């Protein structure tokens, strides 16, 4: 297969590994080898670079950025992804501006190549006046360089943050890329492959879409993938496409080495030869006819003509529609005890309150290192490092739904163990005492001493009546069973670390 007509394709994967985004590493690791092998077979000369980044505050405990330069060596890419780990992250904004500069200055781009940057994240960059942004990097100025260099940026936005969506749309539209919205990480590798095929040509993208649809069989393709392919195929797309005719099988790497030409002959319909064997089928059933005598209009003799008696049609009697019985229409009795769902086993898509505007998971408490001093924004408490301010205060007395999760190791799954509805109106520095009572404080102390980390996220609630918050808490408790709620007689154990011991 020949090289792409617009030059070799070079792709950069930029992965946000902070907080809730750290689980993206597991999905990419699982499919990286198959994905790279497939793309190299279908798009000759393609090269890849990977950038993993946390935030500035992760410099002491984790890392700020890690990257591997452009290469077509599969073991190098796989080893990098296996070695990189998740990070904690700082505030809501992350160091996307630093990633834009790193990709522009430190990666060895090839002149006259198709240059693509796929940026996956759920946050937005820091401004130039951010204290830890010591180089005063302005992401808008960095975007200006990408626009004039012809690099196509694809902003792959995860979750529902509005500022993050605005940032991802801006970098995609100004660089002639495309904004992609995702609800979770399940299809991130399909999104990456679809973007690469789109840059190769429209027929390549259509071929890959047909392949993805075939996985679902007779079922409808996932709504998230429908939106992805719809965005990549939209008519007003600015992405580059090849001007040469694409091959007949765009997704196949097996082609003939000799060039071939094809001539199309157009014939008139009348010039198609008649097939003498193409006869009408004979009737196997005999039709009985009887003669009917009719009078001649001129007064002559009467004539007889066959009369075919029509068949009688059968009338099907359908049962009458009846109203459902009273037993089927009976409303459920919420006072009757029902089996609760174990919250730590409920996935993101199946969570009842997933439609709320959740913030990203924020690292709140972590084990205190023995030798290192705490970084700015953290304070030591016994064997713990706690954030000085978890969420900024506000004059609005607007309650929020808080969930607490425990992570046994960096990059592993976060287990949701606790919830509460609170209000941080005037005391943002006292967030720990507001969130946790004495029992919750003991649980935190136990898991942190075992080497675990504690994350927190929130979603604001619309409260119109005084008792709405109380009713909301009761509804959550009626449906979900949180390990730290004290209603369970068992314990959860993961990686030999006790998360909850009732």
UniProtKB/TrEMBL annotation:
Residues 281-291 have a biased composition (Basic residues). It comes from the Eukaryota. Residues 296-305 have a biased composition (Polar residues). Residues 10-195 form the VWFA domain. Coiled coil: none annotated. Residues 250-265 have a biased composition (Low complexity). Residues 236-307 are annotated as: Disordered. SUPFAM superfamilies: vWA-like. PROSITE patterns: VWFA. This is VWFA domain-containing protein. It comes from Patella caerulea (Rayed Mediterranean limpet).
């Amino acid at each position: 297969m020949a090289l792409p007509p617009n030059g070799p394709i070079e792709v950069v994967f930029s992965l946000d590994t902070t907080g809730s985004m750290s689980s993206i590493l597991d999905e990419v690791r699982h499919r990286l080898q198959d994905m790279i092998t497939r793309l190299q077979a279908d798009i000759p000369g393609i090269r890849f670079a990977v950038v993993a980044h946390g935030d500035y505050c992760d410099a002491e405990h984790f890392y700020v950025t890690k990257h591997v330069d452009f290469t077509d060596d599969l073991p190098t890419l796989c080893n990098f992804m296996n070695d990189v780990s998740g990070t904690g992250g700082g505030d809501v904004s992350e160091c996307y501006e630093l990633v834009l500069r790193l990709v522009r200055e430190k990666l060895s781009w090839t002149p006259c190549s198709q240059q693509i940057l796929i940026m996956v994240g759920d946050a937005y960059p820091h401004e130039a006046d951010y204290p830890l942004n010591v180089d005063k990097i302005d992401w808008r100025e960095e975007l200006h360089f990408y626009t004039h260099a012809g690099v196509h940026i694809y902003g792959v936005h995860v979750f529902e943050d509005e500022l993050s969506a605005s940032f991802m749309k801006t970098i995609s539209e100004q660089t002639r890329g495309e904004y992609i919205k995702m609800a979770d990480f399940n299809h991130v590798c399909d999104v990456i492959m679809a973007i690469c095929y789109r840059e190769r040509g429209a027929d390549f993208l259509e071929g890959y879409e047909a392949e993805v649809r075939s996985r679902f069989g007779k079922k409808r393709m996932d709504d998230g993938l429908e939106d992805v392919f719809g965005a990549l195929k939209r008519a007003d797309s600015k992405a580059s496409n090849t001007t040469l005719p694409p091959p007949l099988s765009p997704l196949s790497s097996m082609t003939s080495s000799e060039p071939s030409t094809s001539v199309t002959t157009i014939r008139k319909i009348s010039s198609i030869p008649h097939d003498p064997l193409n006869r009408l089928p004979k009737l196997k059933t005999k039709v009985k006819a009887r003669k009917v005598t009719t009078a001649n209009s001129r007064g002559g003799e009467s004539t007889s003509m066959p009369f075919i008696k029509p068949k009688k049609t059968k009338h099907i009697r359908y049962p009458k529609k009846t109203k459902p019985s009273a037993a089927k229409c009976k409303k459920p009795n919420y006072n009757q005890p029902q089996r609760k769902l174990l919250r730590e086993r409920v996935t993101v898509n199946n969570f009842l309150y997933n439609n709320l505007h959740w913030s990203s998971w924020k690292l709140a408490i972590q084990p205190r290192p023995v030798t290192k001093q705490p970084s700015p924004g953290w304070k030591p408490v016994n064997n713990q490092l706690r954030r000085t301010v978890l969420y900024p205060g506000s004059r609005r007395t607007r309650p929020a739904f808080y969930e607490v999760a425990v992570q046994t190791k960096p990059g592993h799954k976060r287990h949701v163990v606790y919830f509460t509805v609170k209000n941080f109106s005037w005391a943002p520095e006292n967030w720990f005492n507001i969130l946790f009572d004495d029992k919750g404080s003991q649980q935190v102390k136990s898991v942190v001493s075992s080497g675990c980390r504690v994350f927190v996220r929130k979603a604001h609630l619309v409260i119109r009546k005084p008792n709405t918050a109380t009713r909301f808490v009761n509804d959550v408790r009626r449906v979900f069973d949180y390990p730290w709620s004290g209603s369970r007689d068992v314990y959860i154990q993961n990686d030999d670390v006790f998360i909850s011991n009732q």
